[in-house]
Amino acid sequence: MRAAQGMLAVALAGGLVPGLLSGQEGLPSGPAWTLFGGDPSSLVGGGVISREAFGFYWETRVEPPQPSLDAGFQTQTAERGDAIRRIMFDPRSRTYFGYDVLVEVGGDSGVYRVTFQPFRTPFEPTAWALPGPSAEWTALRSPQFPPPETIRAGEVLALELLANPDTGQRIVDYVTIQEPSRSFRGFDALPDRQFAFATGAPRDFRAEDVELRIQAARLRVNGTPESSADQLFSDVSGALVWLYVPGRGRFVLSLVPQLAFERRGEVRGTLLEFTVGGDVYALSSGVRIAPGQAVFHLYVRHDPDWLPSYPFADTSRFTMGSAPNAGALALE
Amino acid sequence: MEPLDDHELKQLLREWTSPPAPRRLGSPWTHRGPLRGWLTGSIAIPAPVALAALFAFLAYLAWSVAGGPPAAPAPAAEPIEPESAVVSLSGFRTVSEVVPRRVGGLE
How many CA atoms are closer than 13 Å to the CA of A206, on its beta-carbon side? Predict the structure, then answer.
């Protein structure tokens, strides 16, 4: 029996994509919104489908990263019978594109036969929590797919899927087959396995490369717990991480000084705290927020009137998101 | 001569007066009053110290004439990228053929 583990880290180029999906139909389970970024390409989504014998790992990138994809862009993965369905869609323009993947375990250990093909079953927007009937959605034409590929565990395939004739940008999927992301050895649960594939030539590390990471945030405002964050288990990371607090607007956080940001707090291990307008915001994360052992200044930009505007936004709930730089956030 | 006891030594000390200072030493400031001492007194400065002070003064003079210290660099603010256009998925076209490229792996 195949166990689908929908640990689907999904991202929107505008920081407006559900961060984690669970369940076989790929329905959003939490209000996490993630935006990734890089140098020659921008990461707009990634995740894994784990089965008993393997994990199908993927990342979607836009190359080059500018201009950014519309904030409504989403890319997800879900199981459809034997197939793994990769799909990307834009709710604003009601446009989608995708393909199915079949993975068969080869005769030799660590060898897999991977088949990319058009959708074997129709696309149903409601299965992805998308608005409108199917008739309102336009599919981008399916390309000619290659014959089945035999790959070894850990090998990475780049699939150039879409090209924009006006901007010269391409949307590329990077996929690999490895051992399942989540597995057990006896009674021991093994740590989740992740996949990431950065593109471009190596360069020296920069301070701006350091990312904040917040997982399962628990927020207190002036000592009072923010109840809408109590059941939030999403995970966001980026050079900038933003918090939407109902009734208080958006707080964009940075470890390095930025224009329009003020030094308002500190990051101390898995805790961060900042003060804006006399109110004290204290956040506890399930993982270390910044690398290293030191205590870091926290720079904050407050947008008091900001409201999430993505489809189905719940403005009464605490929400997090991230961005690679301030320019990307200006798009929202 | 028999050694003197403490009492005799104290008596002798009270009667003893110090010899006058040599003329080259001049009068101590305290004998001339504090104000006159500051106006007419002198102090001996080792030549290396005097030269170092002179050079430091000349360097400061040259640096002042040149316009003072360089302006402190403004804090490097992160440039905010200009708001760029947004591209929609509908602006993309499917490639005619998907050709997988092997770009990484565990060799």
Answer: 9
Q: Which residues of chain A does B88 touch, with a Cβ-Cβ cutoff of 8 Å?
A: 69-70, 73, 90, 92-93, 95
Is B96 among the domain residues? no
- Span between the terminal Cα atoms of chain A, in Å: 43
What would the pLDDT profile of A275-314 be if each residue is shown by its tens digit? 999 999 999 999 999 998 899 999 999 999 998 876 667 8
| Domain that residue B39 falls in | 26-65
Higher pLDDT, A33 or A214: A214
Residue boundaries of the structural domains of chain A: 8-189, 210-329
pLDDT at B8: 83
pLDDT: is A238 or A8 the higher one?
A238
Helix/strand/coil for A278: coil
Structural domain contains residue B93: no
- Tell me the Ramachandran region of residue B58: left when phi exceeds 0, alpha when psi lies from -120 to 50, beta otherwise: alpha
Contacts with B73 from chain A: Cβ below 8 Å:
none
CB-nearest to B91 from A166, A174, A258 is: A166
Contact between chains at A327 and B88 (C-beta distance less than 8 A): no
Predicted TM-score (pTM) of the model is: 0.64
Using the CB atoms, write b or e for A130-161: b if 16+ within 10 Å. Answer: beeeeeebebbeebebbeebebbbbbbbbbbb
Give how many domains chain B has, as a whole number. 1
Within a domain: B5: no
- Whether B89 sits inside 8 A of A327 (CB atoms) is no
Task: Evaluate whether A13 touches A44 at the Cβ level (below 8 Å).
Answer: yes
Percent of chain A clearing pLDDT 90 (strictly above): 47
What is the distance between the alpha carbons of residues A284 and A303, in angstroms, rounded to a whole number? 22
Domain contains B107? no
